Request: fold
Amino acid sequence: MPNQSTRAGAGSSWPLRVGLGLCVTALVIVGFQLKHDHRSPAASTTTLHATPTTTASGPTTSNGPSSSTTPTTPTTQPSTPSTNLPPPYVNMTAFKPPGAGCRFSTGAPIPATPSNDTTTTSATTTTTPALSAIGHCTVLEIGDSLGNDIGWGLARQLGHDHELRLVQADKSSTGLLTPWFYDWPKKEKVLLAQYKPQLVIITFGANDEQNLRVNGQVLAFGSAPWVKAYTAIVTKMASAATKSGAYVMWVGMPIMQPNGYRQGMVLINSVFAQVATTVPGMTFVPTWDLFANSKGQFEVAARVNNVPSLLREPDGIHFSYVGENVISTYVTRAIGNVYHVLITPESGMYIDH
Reply:
């Protein structure tokens, strides 16, 4: 039987043990809540809204799943986003606008109402359609793991607009050059038939910096034959969507941190930009400068809505949670600007430059 002093010691240590147990439990709960867990949708749907910029210039590229840290919750949002970025390349060639109540339109200049003023040459005067309500639209978003990053961000930015349905069908570790692993042209046809979208947002390139085999011949990455073959594949993907009656918004790769990899992305972006000039209904949206600093260098972090924030993952390729919101805000605004509809990011994030 324990003596009195032993019992007293055990009794006095009991509250301490309880306190330590509660502390450990609290730490486990906090750690669980802070864990950032992205969910990759297998063609998941979200119901969608933007504001605008317009037409024509310059290149970009990307890949893989984002697992970034706790999201930043800014308290102040700058009233005016950056305006010194390259505008999208918009192909204004005649393209029948989507039907089914969706009001997307490339806003190609149209002749203005003839004027009675004989001093003006009304024949050359053009106007741009005003912004209109978006109507009932379906947006299909496809791509690699960087497409996943953008898709997750778009789901947050557009989820409040019940007029717009967002279908996310990205696949990590895929690209346009490995059909034996995941045949994107084939999958795209299935998705187009299933969802009948009015807009297809495409993000590829991060896994395409590799040699290409055509008819048993290996084409070295970056060579003239490689560029020609890759251009044909990109054209096929874009044309499949436009021939189904959907507009295409091809999102370019952002600047990358790994030096050699970054140079390859410049070439890949140039292909996207060139194809956008040949496929009616296609738009190329450059994102390279969005994530570069004032010297044109890779920027891992920046002030976002006046809050210091990480933009990219440690690999220097994928986006952090805040980076996802920044690029999805940019794409959402591009939808409004290019297709002349009223659409606003739900929780817009802008890099303070």
About this structure: Residues 4-34 form the longest helix (31 residues).
